[in-house]
Amino acid sequence: MPIFRKTYELYKIFYGYRASVPKQDRYTIWQRCETLILEALEGILYASQTSRQEKLPILERTSVKLNFLRVFVRLMKDTKAVDTKKYLIMESAIDEIGRMLGGWIRSTKDR
Hints:
Elements lengths: L1 H16 L5 H4 L2 H20 L3 H27 L5 H27 L1
Helix pairs in contact: 1-3, 1-5, 3-4, 4-5
């Protein structure tokens, strides 16, 4: 499943950046972002294994979590917890996952 694979890759990228994040940020906003990525991964996997009528609310919740993640990653860049290059890599992946998730939501609504 491409969206699962992309989210999985985002987590691996995110995890790889952990050591470069200041300790004061690692246990606050970084931890929250990590949790949101894992919750999005969980939501995608869960939605892929549910019936059509159960799928839409799960996908919509996952989309909200992805939007929170987008804001928190931007906040990390603005507070200099991550540099601009790392931010752009993460933001690009988040945007792609968001487009895939939006398409999945639209196709589920159309059925």
